[in-house]
Amino acid sequence: MYLPYYIDPTYVLVIIGLVITLAASAKVKTTFAKYSKYRSMSGLTGEQAAQRILQSSGIYDVTIERIQGNLSDNYDPRSKVLRLSDSVYGQTSIAAIGVAAHECGHAIQHANSYVPLKLRSAIVPVANFGSMAAWPLILLGVFMRGQTLIDLGIILFSAAVLFQLITLPVEVNASRRAIAVLGGTGILYGDELKYSKKVLGAAALTYVAAAASMILQLLRLVLLFGGRKRD
Fold first, then answer.
1. pLDDT tens-digit profile of 42-58?
2. Distance separating alpha carbons of residues 130 and 150, to the nearest angstrom
3. Edge-to-edge strand order for the sheet containing 74-76?
4. How far apart (Å, rounded) are the C-alpha atoms in residues 13 and 130?
5. Distances from the Cα of 43 to the Cαs of 74, 165, 192, in angstroms?
6. Of the listed 47, 65, 103, 192, which one is catalytic?
7. Span 83-111, mean pLDDT?
8. CA–CA separation, 124 and 112 (whole Å)
9. Domain residue limits, the chain
10. CB-side exposure of 71: number of CA atoms within 13 Å?
11. Do the bridges between strand 81-85 and strand 63-67 make them parallel or antiparallel, or are there none, so unpaired?
12. Lowest-pLDDT range, 12-26, 31-45, 214-228?
């Protein structure tokens, strides 16, 4: 069969990254949905559990807010605001409490000046700029036959990859802190902790998948443009 157009063999790296990301996303959604059906014996909602965790950790200057969405929970260290989604804030499930505790883990990291969290916060502006400017610079470099612009684009994209790599230990550590404090405060008991670990473990896979996808994209950029001869 005659193929009139050039087929980029490196595009398979993008497909692999997409498959990994979709699989991780499906895993966390199904795991969260499963353990959302398990009501915690404490009867605490995600918001109440978060409040208790923060107080037990000596943190009184973090505000807890409700935001729309599903699993859109996050902690903002700049404004010291812990945001819990509709599926977590007012829910009493093991899954909801586990996610709320994870976000509290970030607040505890912030209070304790956890170095990887500080590094991630510091690199955010560069990573955001790099993810937006990388491709325009690379394409401009290709059009103008300027390897310097291409190299700069790849370097900027590398900053976004670095952000994802730094995110991994931050998220894993937050989950470990969450499990420890949930057990230490008695918010979850026995098998509830084990189920909560499964929820947080599935969530961690999404960060692993994101990092793997970004690394594959960087590899593709290097393969496509990194070996070009300079003018």
1. 999 999 999 999 999 99
2. 13
3. 63-67, 81-85, 74-76
4. 20
5. 23, 36, 12
6. 103
7. 96
8. 20
9. 11-226
10. 18
11. parallel
12. 214-228
Q: What is the mean pLDDT of the chain?
A: 92
Residue (of 114, 107, 58, 49) closest to 82 by Cα position: 107
Q: What's the DSSP call for residue 70? A: S
Cβ proximity of 211 and 168 under 8 Å: yes
Is 171 among the catalytic positions? Answer: no
Sign of CA dihedral 154, 155, 156, 160: positive
pLDDT score of 227: 62
In this structure, what are the phi and psi dihedrals at residue 10, rounded to the nearest 5 degrees? -75, -10
Report yes or no: 196 and 93 within 8 Å, Cβ to Cβ: no
For residue 197 the two structure tokens come to: 């670990």
User: What does the CA dihedral 210, 109, 63, 195 come to, rounded to 10 degrees?
Assistant: 60
In the predicted structure, residue 167 carries a pLDDT above the cut 80: yes
Q: Which residue has the tokens 């896979």?
A: 205
**Structure tokens that stand for 207 in this block:** 């960060």
